[in-house]
């Protein structure tokens, strides 16, 4: 699979951004999809994941209540609505397909370029 992320940028603390990802080269609706992020000097971490039908999701504790993951299987697109952004949300954000379900999500090695999100005043 291939993934192209967009929608990142510079935003002030408390602001919002909506990330988008276009997927190709896979049967999109068949895959659990997720957003990961990687801050400078840190490991890549799971932010949110969503099952193929879109009716079950999982979030990292650090973003619960602030971020919403969604998908459009007709358009092969994945979204991440990010609200109440904090400086610690600053990172490169990636979308990725994975296996082993929602709770044991393991990403395939199909990483794209990601999109930079910077939260700063």
**Overall helicity:** under 10%
The secondary-structure element order is: EEEEEEEEEEE
Give the CA-CA distance, first to last residue.
Answer: 36 Å
- What fraction strand? over 45%
**Oligomer, anyone?**
single chain
- Judged by helices, strands and strand pairing, the structural class is mainly beta
Q: Calculate Rg over CA atoms.
A: 13 Å
Q: Can you give the mean pLDDT?
A: 96
Biggest sheet, in brief?
Answer: 7 strands, mixed
Tally of DSSP helical segments: 0
Give the beta-strand count.
11
Question: Which stretches are poorly predicted, pLDDT < 50 over at least 5 residues?
Answer: none
Q: Tell me the overall shape.
A: globular
Molecular structure report:
The protein has 121 residues and is mainly beta. The chain starts with a strand and ends with a strand. The strands form two sheets. Strands 2, 4, 5, 6, 9, 10 and 11 form a seven-stranded mixed beta sheet that branches. A four-stranded antiparallel beta sheet has the order 1-3-8-7, with no helix packed on it. It contains no helices and eleven strands. The model has no long low-confidence stretch (mean pLDDT 96).
Detail the topology: elements first, then pairings:
Blueprint: E1 2-6, E2 9-11, E3 17-24, E4 32-38, E5 45-50, E6 57-59, E7 67-72, E8 77-82, E9 91-99, E10 106-107, E11 115-119
What is the compact description of this entry?
The chain has strands at 2-6, 9-11, 17-24, 32-38, 45-50, 57-59, 67-72, 77-82, 91-99, 106-107, 115-119.
């Amino acid at each position: 699979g291939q993934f192209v992320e967009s929608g990142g940028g510079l935003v002030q603390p408390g602001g919002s951004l909506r990330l988008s990802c276009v997927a190709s080269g896979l049967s999109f609706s068949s895959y659990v999809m997720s957003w990961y992020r990687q801050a400078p000097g840190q490991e890549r971490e799971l932010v949110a994941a969503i099952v193929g039908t879109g009716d079950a999701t999982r979030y990292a504790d650090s973003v619960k209540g602030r971020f919403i993951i969604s998908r459009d299987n007709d358009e092969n697109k994945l979204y991440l609505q990010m609200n109440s952004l904090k400086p610690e949300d600053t990172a490169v954000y990636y979308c990725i397909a994975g296996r082993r379900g929602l709770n044991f999500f393991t990403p395939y090695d199909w990483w794209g370029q990601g999109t930079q999100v910077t939260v700063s005043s």
